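Work Package 4 report. The design task specified in the project plan requires that, given a folded chain encoded as structure tokens, an amino acid be chosen for each position. We show below one input record used in the internal validation round.
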């Protein structure tokens, strides 16, 4: 493999992804949109909790911080999965460039990596802005000087690729199917939202569901993020970080296998240039 060509293709995919996802708009307008959408979602969750807690006679600031941090960092999952779940439709049927990307001298993998990283970068903008404004608005017990930044950066560096390779699976499924891309990313991100401990600990789930939560990298990603931000002085269970790395590697391997099998099936059935005629 030509590493230089791979990186160049990934960089071009990143640049294209950033422009497409930002709708080719003015950077300031895009920045405003990047915070309004996730921040509105954050406000909905926060006010539901606050109003419900006040009705019950108690408000727990620590759990509110738990909820808001989880909901904020879930932006990574929602953005990446929705982007990559819809990506093949854009490439194959909207812009009709998939066949040209596929037969280009580069590799489809570098292109997908670049598009996934572009989605992650856009999500990072939303995460940072939402976290800053959310912490200020709700007076969360988060001390910026006490955050364990090396641990936070490490968790993002491991967790985000696992989401990109989950997107590989969605891209592969879309390659051999029709009309699933309309909701595929939403279905999967919704399952992750429920099972990965975004707004409540996975331990409160039914016992038969908890094993599913325990194999999701996003579960451990959120645990490590919360530990770095909400309990920076407390020792982090080594198992959480270890499981995050192991399940992320397993997700990467599974994503590549699923995409490869889908690619082979698409070649056999002549689906590379399929049009579903919406």
């Amino acid at each position: 493999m030509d590493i230089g060509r791979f990186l160049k293709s990934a960089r071009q995919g990143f640049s294209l992804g950033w422009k497409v996802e930002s709708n080719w708009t003015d950077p300031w307008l895009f920045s405003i949109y990047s915070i309004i959408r996730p921040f509105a979602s954050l406000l909905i969750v926060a006010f539901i909790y606050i109003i419900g807690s006040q009705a019950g006679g108690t408000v727990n600031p620590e759990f509110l911080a738990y909820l808001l941090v989880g909901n904020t960092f879930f932006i990574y999952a929602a953005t990446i999965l929705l982007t990559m779940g819809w990506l093949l439709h854009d490439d194959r049927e909207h812009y009709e460039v998939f066949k040209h990307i596929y037969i280009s001298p580069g590799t489809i993998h570098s292109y997908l990596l670049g598009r996934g990283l572009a989605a992650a970068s856009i999500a990072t903008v939303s995460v940072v802005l939402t976290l800053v404004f959310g912490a200020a608005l709700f007076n969360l017990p988060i001390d910026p000087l006490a955050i364990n930044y090396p641990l936070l950066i490490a968790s993002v560096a491991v967790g985000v690729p696992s989401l990109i390779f989950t997107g590989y699976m969605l891209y592969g499924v879309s390659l051999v199917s029709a009309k699933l891309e309309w909701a595929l990313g939403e279905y999967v991100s919704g399952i992750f939202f429920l099972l990965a401990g975004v707004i409540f600990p996975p331990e409160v789930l039914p016992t038969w569901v908890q094993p599913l939560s325990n194999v999701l990298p996003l579960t451990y990603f959120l645990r490590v993020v919360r530990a770095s931000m909400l309990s920076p002085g407390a020792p982090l269970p080594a198992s959480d970080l270890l499981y995050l790395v192991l399940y992320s590697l397993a997700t990467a391997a599974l994503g590549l296998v699923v995409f490869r099998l889908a690619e082979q099936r698409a070649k056999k059935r002549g689906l590379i240039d399929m049009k579903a005629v919406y």
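The first helix runs from residue 3 to 21. Validation will be extended to a larger panel in the next phase.
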